[in-house]
Amino acid sequence: MQNDPELSGKYLGTITKDFVLVADTLKEAAYQVKKRGFSEFPIFPISKTEISVGNLLIGKEEMNTDWNYSITYLDEFVQRKLVEDEEAFKKAYKDPDEFCCLFVVDQEFTNFLFIPYPED
């Protein structure tokens, strides 16, 4: 899975600007999902409006961001048939200690994005 070229122009700027603010929280949440044995594949759906995927983790009003950040994991995506080929997804999934798996949901665009966490 490569990052979609449409991300570069329309979305990457606002996502990157927000990500600096929320990265530590998302990284800790991903760590907790793995540590507690829920999943090795945490996913953070992000959207500008309410969505029904995952549980809201950070509302855009909380940290003055453009996006709402939810948390879920691969099992929900498989159950909802948002991921059809689970093995292909697992192979493409990047190390969750180094990369955040975002699921960008907007009116005209829905796709996965792997963004590296800032280095400490």
Please outline the helices and strands.
Layout (H helix, E strand, L loop, with lengths): L4 H31 L6 E6 L7 E4 L1 H4 L4 E6 H6 L6 H7 L6 E7 L4 E7 L4
Parallel strand pairs: 1-4
Antiparallel strand pairs: 1-3, 2-3, 4-5
Summarize this structure as a short list of keywords or feature phrases:
single chain; 120 residues; 25% strand
Write structural notes for this entry:
This protein is α+β, with helices and mostly antiparallel strands and 120 residues long. Helix content is 40%, strand content 25%. The protein has 4 helices and 5 strands; from the N terminus they run αββαβααββ. It has a 5-stranded mixed sheet with strand order 2-3-1-4-5. The relative contact order is 0.22. The model has no long low-confidence stretch (mean pLDDT 88).
